Amino acid sequence: MTKASFENPGVHLPWAGKPVRIEEAEEILTSLWHLSADNVRISQNVNVRASVLNFVICAPDITTAQRASSLLRELCSTHIARVILLILDTSESSPTEVSTWVTLRSFPIISDIMRHNFEQITIMLSGSALRSAATIIQPLLKPELPIYLWWLQDPPRDETLFSRLAQTSNRVIVDSESFLQPENSLARLAAHLQDTAENSRWALSDLNWGRITPWRQLVAQFFDVPTYQDYLSGIYQIEIEHAISPTRDTTGANGSSPTTPTVNTTRALLFSAWLLKSLNWQIDTANERNQHHPETGEHSWHTSHATGKLQLPGTDELLVHSGRGSITIRPRVEPALTPGSLCLVRILSALDDKHATFAIDRADGAEYAITSVELPEGTRHQRTVSLGQSSSRIASTLLHDELEILGHDRLFEAALNEVYRLLVE
């Protein structure tokens, strides 16, 4: 038999609002709306009730859930939602319980005179109630509105729990920057996406994909220049560096695990996969020189054959790659950067015995990079470009972008499938 939160004095979440029985959640929310309307008439403020989507957030613990709740204030007012915050207690020793809290959240639209309100329902599940998470939240979802699921931290090893919640959603959002087992979790996500691709309506996205967008744009801009386009067909080596902490100690000051790993190659892997797909490179998985060291963040792969035809951007012209290639990922100590941040992309090309190097190098953890092109004539073109906030963008900004998209991001999904092949096959 499940227990409501107010029957469990050991759980106190004042930030989550009023403890209620889950079957009373809608009724209590209605009464809170009525109370809010009365306050509007007294204070002559204007409170706007709106919902454009259902936003389900899955957190592994109370601390993570509270951070996510605080972050909701930073989302744009165009994404007002019915928020259901699920705290999933997967501890085997926890009894079966369903604890529920409800509250109204608000923030000013133009000034404090007019405010947007939205509803937040917080539910803590433990024991056998976890298996029924999708069924439990179903009556609380607003009908005929899209459902976004934000899964915090690593995807669970219990694929049934994740799958059932994903199948209720239109879009599933993760952030591989916070994965405690980055490469294993990325591979599990790719495998799960492949398994459900034919019979699933939900799309998958990763906030880290948004963080590497400016780097992908800068690489594409190199070859927007007509005089550089021929070098696309001669690319033979790609080098990528990602930031790591000065120490690789995997324990915190008190012997506890860190909230984020000191080595996280997810951005570098996604970027590598995007380049491989863009260049139509095929990796020789049997090559003995391929190396994988997840603990240090070092990887290298080799191609052993021509990669076929390559279409130049914006043209109908087709080129053929001239031979073998390699792609390398390695760490670089950058104390000022979040582990996993891209630091360097270097692309080497040879065409008719002429060599060219295209590079994007981040300087000392700054929010800018230096792009350079070294040509056979010895000329070196450099410019300093701003990375904006994209390289270290906070989750609220990235979520804002993701909540604008309902359908599949085919480019990301193709890159994720390529990552799976790099890590598993």
TrEMBL record:
The residue ranges of the Glucose-6-phosphate dehydrogenase assembly protein OpcA N-terminal domain are 76-190
- What InterPro entries does the record point to? G6PDH_assembly_OpcA, OpcA_G6PD_C, OpcA_G6PD_N
> Superkingdom of the source?
Bacteria
Query: Where in this chain does the record put each Glucose-6-phosphate dehydrogenase assembly protein OpcA C-terminal domain?
Result: 204-416
Its recorded name reads Glucose-6-phosphate dehydrogenase
**What is the organism of origin for this protein?**
Ktedonobacter robiniae
